[in-house]
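Researcher: Good morning. I'm working through a list of sequences from a screen, and I'd like to move beyond sequence-only analysis. For each chain I'm collecting a predicted structure so we can compare shapes side by side. This is the next one on the list. No need for commentary yet; just the structure.
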Amino acid sequence: MSDLAKEKAARLLKKRGSVSSLGSHDVRAKETRDKTKDSISTVSYIDEPGHHDDNPRPAVQMENTFQLAPYRRFPVLTVNDILKDVLASYLQEEKYEAELCRQMTKTISEVIKARVKDLMVPRYKIIVLISIGQLSDQNMRIGSRCLWDASNDTFSSHTFKNSSLFAVANVYAVYFE
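Model: Good morning. Structure tokens for this chain:
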């Protein structure tokens, strides 16, 4: 490494306030240039002594709650009413079009999820699944599988039909310990 590059590195490190072994190593490298290869080692400290923040943050100590059951159960009947209301308001007058229904599933799922989260039921993870299909002479089966705690986890489901489409909305509420 050239002397110019070493000097530039030393100035840069001094500006940053880093502690460097560049100065002492530089002297030794000049003395023993013929005997060893040039190398630079640098040590930097994020929190140097004497350079602390003016307002140190107080340490927040969190403790486990060891809460294994919910204080408040998930309101299945209220969520059923939300599902009925949202599906009817968004799909009552709609005709089945594949592209429109693709966007409607995203919109409806976000609206339902927001309204369920507005109920402020603590420690439940909310999963919303919407399926919209064309109403004609066919059958459709929808299934889902997951790891389930029957005492705390629950779901709500509603089916909607109009003249050209059907929709199935499922909300899963999984208790998060």
